[in-house]
Amino acid sequence: MTSMQPASSADPRQSFDDPLLDGLLILCKLHGAAVSRTSLCAGLPLAEQRLTLELLPRAAARAGLQARIL
Predict the structure, then answer these.
(1) d(Cα 65, Cα 58) in Å, to the nearest integer?
(2) Cβ neighbours for 19, distance < 8 A, ≥ 6 positions apart
(3) 22-55: b (≥16 Cβ within 10 Å) or e
(4) At 32, which CATH number?
(5) Residue 20 near residue 50, CB atoms below 8 Å
(6) Quick check: is 26 in a domain?
(7) How far apart are CA 32 and CA 66, in angstroms?
(8) Residue 7 falls within a domain, yes or no?
(9) Model-level pTM?
(10) Which residues lie across from 50 on neighbouring strands?
(11) Looking at the domain assignment, is residue 10 inside a domain?
């Protein structure tokens, strides 16, 4: 009998606390967009592994949403 252990994620975006990204994920879910943390911020120049206000519109566009900073 073998035990299956969950694979640890090598992607630091999955474990970092990122309130802005978490909020965007909630909005995506409310609008029916099935996206992941990784897909929203892959390739973006994250500051300290966190989504910034300047990058929010780019991340939202990946989910088919529009965002702007006022």
Answers:
(1) 9
(2) none
(3) eebbeebeeeebebebeebbeebebeeeebeeeb
(4) 3.90.70.10
(5) yes
(6) yes
(7) 14
(8) no
(9) 0.75
(10) 47
(11) no
Split at pLDDT 50, 70, 90, the class of 67 is: very high
**Tens digit of pLDDT for each residue in 5-52?**
554 555 555 566 899 999 999 999 999 999 999 999 999 999 898 999
Instruction: In whole angstroms, give the CA distance from residue 24 to residue 17.
Output: 13
The SS3 of residue 60 is helix
Residues 9, 12, 13: CA angle, nearest 5 degrees? 105
pLDDT over 80 (residue 3): no
Q: How far apart are CA 60 and CA 62, in angstroms?
A: 5
